[in-house]
Every structure is written in C-alpha cells, then in structure tokens.
Specification:
The chain has about 525 residues and is mostly helical. Helices cover about 60% and strands about 5% of the residues. Among the domains are: about 80 residues, 434 Repressor (Amino-terminal Domain) (Orthogonal Bundle); about 60 residues, no CATH class; about 110 residues.
Length: about 525
C-alpha cells in the first residue's frame, strides 16, 4: 500500500509553510496579530479634528482621507496600505491608486469606506444613508445648499444653524416663507466653514430655486440664465481662492463641475457649447486648485478634462491656455523640456490667443529658456516681448481666464526667470518691489515671499532669507498652501551651510512643523 503525502499548505498572509496540526489558514505569527488587525480601531473624535484630517476631508477626495488616516500621528507608526486595504476590501495596489489618482466618485463605495473607518457623518461631503439607529429630528428647517453638484433644500437643525452663524440666512428664508417644519428624516448640522455641505447665501435666493429646477430637468430648464448662475458661482470661488485657500474653494467648484458633467448631454443644443466652455474654464481652475494642494494626479485629470471640454466647445483660446497651465505645472516638477515644449505648443497652435494670454505664454517661454541654460540676453529679449504685448493690451474683456495676469504678475514671473538664470539678487529685488505694493492676495503674498527667500538664500543672505521665509511660513499655514511649503523646503536646503544660525534654524523648524 502506497502512502499518500498531504499537499503542503502555506499562510495566506505571509506565505510561510503551515504546521501539520494547524487547521487555520494563517501561521501562528500572523494569527497572533490577526485579532488586532482584523478591523479598524475605535478612535476618539479628536482623531478627526486634526488639521491634517480636516484638510484631507475638505478636498472631497477619499484617497487623501485614507492617506491622512494611515499616516495619522496617533498611530505608533504609519499603517500600511495592505492593512487598510484589508479593512476596506481592497488590495494594496488598489489603495495606492485611490490615494494618488482622481477622487473616487461611486457613492456606494464612499459610503462603505466611510462606515468601515467610522468617519463622522458631519465631516463628510456626502450623506450616509439612514440606518435603524438614526434618530429623527422633528424640528428641522431647510436652507439652500449645493451637495455633490446638486442644488437642494438641506434640512438642518435650526438651533445648530444659528450657533454656526447662519441666523441671518434663516431669517431671510423665514421672511420669504421658505422654512419647513417637521421634516421626517435625520439631519447632520453642517460645519460653518467645513465642506460636508456648501451653504450658499446669495442676495437672491430665487437663483438657487432656478438652479434646482435646472438640475431636475436639464433639457427643459438648463438655459442661458442657469449657465450665467454657474458662471457667477465659479467667479465667486475664484475671487475667494486667494484669501481662503484652495481647500475652501474646491468643494463648490467640484460641485459645479459635477453638475455640468452630469447634465451636459441633456441640455438643448444652443446651450451645450456655452456650458462646455464654462466647464472647461472651471476644470482649468480645479486643476490649479489641485496644484496648490500638491495633488499632481488631480491637477492632471482636470487639465485633461478642461482640454476635452474646450475641444468639444471649439473654445480654441482655452485649449492654448490649458497648454500654458501644463507648462507651468511642468516648472513645478522641474521638467525644463516640458516647460519649453508646452509653452511653444501654446504659442504655435492653430488658434488666436488674446493679447494678455500671448504675453503670459511668451513670459513662460522665457522661463523655459532660462531653465535650459540659454544666454541671459535671449531670456531678457523674450521677457521684453512679453512686457510689450502686455503694455499694448490695455484690457481683454472677452477672456476671463487672463484677467489676473497684470504687470505685477509679469514682474513676479520675470523675477523667477532671473532666479533660474543665475541672477538671484535681481530676482530678490523684483520680488520685494511687487510684494511691497500690497496688491497681492494673502495666499500669493506668502508664496512669493517664499520665492524671495529662495532668491536671498542663493544670493548669500541667510539671515534675511530666514526672516522672509518665516513670514511666508505663517501665511502658508493660514492658507493651507502646499506650494508655499514646497518652496520653503527648498529654501531650507539652500540654507543648510548656515543651519547653525538662529534664523535658518528657526525656519527649518517652522517648515518641518508646517509639513506634518
């Protein structure tokens, strides 16, 4: 009689060979920690109230939330993607893609992940479905809001709303007979400055009613007036960006883009091109906001979407403008070749760019030439051409994308050119002149102070560089500007030879604190 040999069994976690008397699917070493790792730990509310977690939640990007969760300082060490993936029913590769890619949009998955990680519902940008344990609120009122791109009447607790500064809006709605009592479903009071819900308070609340009707029947109602409303909301977000920061501006922009994406195929033909053109403008702005948040994947996605919508709308100027923005993003990645080629493509494409955009493209080309080491005379010649074009273009009323490109903006870009061309002292002086004018937004003043700190460090002025850098660091913290922190990190490295001095040492500590 021939003896049969039982096939060797291995641990499904680490691959080690299992003992014969082990009937489990894992080895003893993996079993010893399985109970601790089988599900997420119970976390206190304070876990979600750190600036890192709130910033991640404010982006409406579950991948960024998962990353902030894994790397939270409360954990003894960062949690692995594999571990968190096991909790969420994902592989390590899938978790990595979710963290680095575009924001997941499938609501069922977002709800499932939020519940597994026990994310508080009032911090989310979507509503968790009702469960048997939810309590009903019999004294609710509604306010106009945009949630996931839709204008809705949002039920909130009146007392909580007034405590969060929404009293004037509630009074206005009461005067118009727009409050409804006794709504039979659970509510989550929104944070006043959070992004779980974007509360809107325009002068004419009827605008929101119009938008709600447009979204419910896009083919019938989404006309030119509704497109104008989208434009006003987008312009408001652009105006707020410089002072409030990208994380605060992004939710409303994503809401607008979500509404456009959902309904652009349903609208009447004469509205489709204006709506696509507006979507391209908004997508370009979203790309900028993700750049500010140091999210390259998000920026790339929205720039590509902006190009797609601009092509559908036959908005040729926007196509060239998006190429310019890709050139600027290439500069942030220190890819000199792409800085030049994207700028040249924007200039040479089959379109006629408005004068102000041509000036910006020409200035960007000069920056690329400085990066690749072309003679300073050629760089300055391109800079002068850009200035001449801008001077001649007194105004450009047709192209809203370029109204921000002023003489101050040009001088700041030229200062960056001088830094790249090995003339940091000239750059520092130019930066100082524009910053002193007090015409920059709060966020931009901090960013260009960081650029000036870099130029001063390269000029051999470590103490002044540290002083300016500390000012920029405070602004970066107030506006949540990841770009500013990135520039200051480079400044700290340049100041390494002077790291024993009080100023550079203080700047290094401040940047490290800001980066956490």
């Amino acid at each position: 009689m021939v003896a049969t040999t039982e096939a060797a069994r291995t641990c499904d976690r680490c691959g080690a060979r299992l003992a014969r008397d082990n009937s489990d699917t894992r080895c003893s070493a993996c079993r010893s920690v399985r109970g601790l790792l089988a599900k997420p730990p119970v976390l206190p509310r304070e876990f979600w109230d750190t600036s890192e977690m709130r910033d991640a939640l404010d982006t409406w990007h579950m991948g960024r939330v998962i990353y902030a969760y894994r790397t939270h300082p409360r954990h003894p060490r960062p949690l692995s993607q594999e571990l968190v993936g096991n909790w969420l029913g994902l592989t390590q590769v899938q978790v990595g893609r979710i963290e680095k890619g575009r924001a997941p949009e499938e609501l069922s998955k977002l709800v499932a992940w939020a519940r597994i990680l026990s994310i508080p519902g009032d911090l989310l940008w979507f509503r968790l479905p009702q469960t048997d344990s939810d309590e009903w609120d019999a004294a609710a009122v509604t306010v106009p809001a945009i949630v996931n791109g839709r204008s809705v009447r949002l039920p909130i607790d009146a007392d909580a709303a007034r405590a969060r500064g929404l009293g004037p809006l509630l009074d206005q709605l009461a005067d118009q007979g727009r409050l409804r009592d006794g709504l039979p479903f659970p509510v989550q009071p929104p944070r006043q400055q959070g992004t779980a819900v974007q509360i809107l308070a325009p002068d004419d609340v009827a605008e929101l009613e119009q938008l709600a009707a447009a979204l419910e029947d896009a083919r019938r109602y989404l006309d030119g007036s509704a497109v104008d409303l989208f434009r006003r909301l987008l312009d408001r977000s652009k105006a707020d960006d410089g002072d409030r920061g990208a994380a605060k501006a992004l939710p409303l922009v994503l809401g607008i883009l979500g509404a456009i994406s959902q309904h652009v195929r349903e609208v009447k033909s004469h509205v489709r091109c204006p709506l696509l053109s507006l979507g391209a403008d908004g997508a370009e702005f979203a790309g900028w906001l993700y750049r500010e948040l140091q999210d390259r994947g998000g920026a790339t996605f929205w720039y590509d979407r902006a190009m797609e919508w601009a092509q559908e709308a036959n908005d040729t100027a926007m196509q060239g403008y998006v190429l310019l923005k890709k050139s600027q993003m290439a500069y942030e990645e220190r890819d000199a070749h792409r800085v030049v080629t994207f700028a040249e493509a924007a200039h040479q494409g089959p379109w006629t760019l408005p004068p102000i955009i041509r000036a910006e493209v020409t200035q960007q080309h000069a920056l690329g030439l400085a990066m690749v080491g072309e003679p300073i005379s050629e760089v300055e010649q391109q800079m002068q051409v850009a200035r001449d074009i801008l001077t001649q273009a007194a105004s450009d009323e047709e192209t809203g994308q370029c109204v921000y490109f002023t003489l101050d903006t040009l001088l700041l870009r030229q200062a960056t050119c001088y830094t790249e061309a090995g003339k940091p002292a000239r750059a520092a002086a130019l930066f100082e002149d524009v910053i002193a004018s007090c015409r920059l937004s709060h966020r931009d003043a901090g960013f260009f102070r960081a650029r000036r700190a870099t130029a001063l460090a390269l000029s051999g002025e470590p103490d002044e560089a540290a002083e300016v850098g500390l000012q920029a660091c405070r602004t970066a913290r107030e506006t949540n500007s990841g770009r500013t922190v990135r520039i200051l990190t480079e400044t700290v490295e340049i100041l390494r030879p002077w790291s024993g001095r009080p100023g550079p040492r203080a700047l290094r500590q401040a940047v490290l604190t800001n980066s956490r």
